[in-house]
Structures
1.
Amino acid sequence: MDELNTVAIIGLGLIGSSIARAAGAALPGSSLTGFDSDEAVRRRAAELGLVAVVDSAADAVRDANLVILCVPVGAMTAAAESIAPHLRPGAIVSDVGSSKASVAAELERVLSVARVVPAHPVAGTEQSGPDAGFASLFRGRWCILTPGETSDGPALLALRAFWQALGARVEVMDAHHHDLVLAVTSHVPHLIAYTIVGTASDLEAVTEGEVIKYSAGGFRDFTRIAASSPVMWRDIFLANKDAVLDTLQRFGEDLSLLQRAIRNDDGETLLDLFTRTSAIRRGIVEMGQDTAAADFGRTHEQG
Ligand SMILES: NC(=O)C1=CN([C@@H]2O[C@H](COP(=O)(O)OP(=O)(O)OC[C@H]3O[C@@H](n4cnc5c(N)ncnc54)[C@H](O)[C@@H]3O)[C@@H](O)[C@H]2O)C=CC1
Ligand SMILES: O=C(O)C(=O)Cc1ccc(O)cc1
């Protein structure tokens, strides 16, 4: 199996810096290099000692046998173009983008000579930047690999072993299926959070500032999600347009049914749905997929 002992990280924000921290701890013999197009981020990553920070993408990838692109989805093509001529023969190139089909197509187009294996660690927070990362972010979380027709078997096995070393559970999935699943479980929920927080803010004039003052648990949870990186989420919605629009269509129809139930004093419909959703929450908690474990890791294991 390929030994991934020289890893280059392009983009040193939340996810790139978390990979650097986790790989530094889990793979002590490996060499880590990194580049970010933002000079302030490069300076901060160097201060934190996350990786050997260099001044160009070319220098970062020259000796690497694994390159991971950790930039917003809309910047993947530019990042791939910046490394393409400088890759070592046989290098594996992966990414961490939250949407997969369009990113994978671009990586395969731009990096036709590299061994491309797209990936998505389904773990994160609402924060950004190199200070926000932490070593335990991926522990016990899923990392979904979406190999294309050109991905080779040994590269897939090597990347699987890399993410497992960082503590992740690895699943292999078709990229379009990934995008549909994540539209339902992550992308549309973020859009709903952005919408409700925007609506509440617009209503502040009517409610005389009391929305924010009396914001209860549910609304506070939405404000956390709606504080996520604007650039990153703009890119995700534009990249996963079809699956997001299909899911929104279904959501709109279901919302109309609830609207009608409320208007018609149809308590039975409301009770049926709320009972069903409460069972779903219990199932998630039992599977250990709620955020408590990650929050615990963030609070107790910064580093
Ligand atoms: N934030 C989260 O919770 C999660 C994010 N992701 C995905 O990870 C990727 C990175 O997200 P974050 O780390 O949260 O973002 P971030 O904003 O913390 O970091 C992204 C970094 O990429 C740099 N960058 C942008 N274009 C570049 C280029 N062409 N070359 C080099 N550096 C460049 C930026 O300067 C920035 O420092 C995104 O594709 C996102 O969809 C995946 C899982 C979770
Ligand atoms: O902070 C949260 O609740 C998240 O949902 C983080 C997150 C954001 C994007 C991803 O692709 C995966 C995880």
2.
Amino acid sequence: MEKIIVHGGNELRGSVHIEGAKNAVLPILAASILAQEDEMVLTNVPILSDVYTMNNVLRFLNVDVDFDEADNRVRLNAAKQLSTQAPFEYVSKMRASIVVMGPLLARYGHAQVAMPGGCAIGSRPVDLHLKGFEALGATINQHDGYIEATADELIGTNIYLDFPSVGATQNIMMAATMATGTTVIENVAREPEIVDLANVLNKMGAKVRGAGTETIRIEGVTALHGTSHYVVQDRIEAGTFMVGAALTHGDVLVENAISEHNKPLISKLEEMGVTVIENEAGVRVIGPKELKPTNVKTLPHPGFPTDMQPQMTVLQLAANGTSTLTETVFENRFMHLEELRRMNANFKVEGRTVALYGPTEFNGAEVAATDLRAAAALVLAGLVANGYTQVTNLKYLDRGYYQFHKKLQALGAEVERVSVPEQEEIILKSKAND
Ligand SMILES: CC(=O)N[C@H]1[C@@H](OP(=O)(O)OP(=O)(O)OC[C@H]2O[C@@H](n3ccc(=O)[nH]c3=O)[C@H](O)[C@@H]2O)O[C@H](CO)[C@@H](O)[C@@H]1O
Ligand SMILES: C=C(OP(=O)(O)O)C(=O)O
């Protein structure tokens, strides 16, 4: 086991490179299943544990996968006959594995995937994915912890999503690429990662229109082929460094950040007194001496992203006054706050809203990450805490951040990642379970 140790007090200064987006590359990797001929070549692929997990799911399904980490390039060949069943041992590792269902159903009329289950941030059902498959003509069976979808033929139809679910939009979009006729999906997710997936599908020969708007229209085609694609920048990694700069009164150029993708965050940063300068090289963020409080509500894109919520609460706690944060996307995404309490944070949760009482004089403590963004938020809090903060449960951090500590070090933070000796590991684990 490893932990990150941060000694607070340093300003972040310099420039930071941002990886390809985890949430874009995972469905794009799954889309390779649709390519009956030609190789898929993906570049700007981030080195993350979730990417390894998706690669292993695809290998299990009989896709040839070659990940050249030195070049951030993955080559995929799905020309062989594939298996249509993804077992529990893979799906349980990563919920996003569910997005192999749509492409398998499109290509083979059959997909069987272990029910993904909830996670620390919420219950996370997949009913909208399944409703979409059913509307396209699939029969859904749930048995022995598996979801099985079967269809003789998928037929284009009109689908309205009750909620603009990212995963459901991606899964239904991929299932519809080879359906007979036209599929219109309304109230879809509009995240940049949806647009990136639609771009790849179109390069593969699909006819997907409207990605990035509320309605996506897909004309079914008979076959898709491989293509090459450069994965879009990770707006959440970029946003995390923007918050880090603001929090530490720093001055950081987030290289090649696409400001359009981070508009809701940038607008809140500006409201808090942060200077944000967009230029050709990226987005430069300069933290003020004193942060002003602000109220935030998470929403589907183009609203404030739930994946920036834990990091944002740290910034709000540091602000001079009371802020609120309302989490509308996931019902249980405040777990990191209890860890921040160990660092002297003062807040009150009422339902889906938390009042955050700043300014906080964070004190270093031993804290455990409860999920991916919680991990980043705790490290950020450590950057401005008195003394040393030790963050454990780094398996969550590694799902979504490549060498987070090294990037922070390069920006001037006093941070290191160390192995925990076995004895200490037992004590830390028992504390994390308290
Ligand atoms: C790999 C990936 O891209 N993950 C992102 C994706 O997750 P994911 O695709 O799982 O998130 P969704 O947009 O589907 O979920 C949003 C909300 O809809 C609910 N819901 C979803 C599907 C469904 O069938 N029924 C249902 O009720 C969920 O419980 C949740 O409350 O979008 C989330 C919301 O921006 C982000 O936090 C995740 O980082
Ligand atoms: C919640 C997240 O991811 P996932 O949907 O893969 O759990 C995230 O990226 O913050």
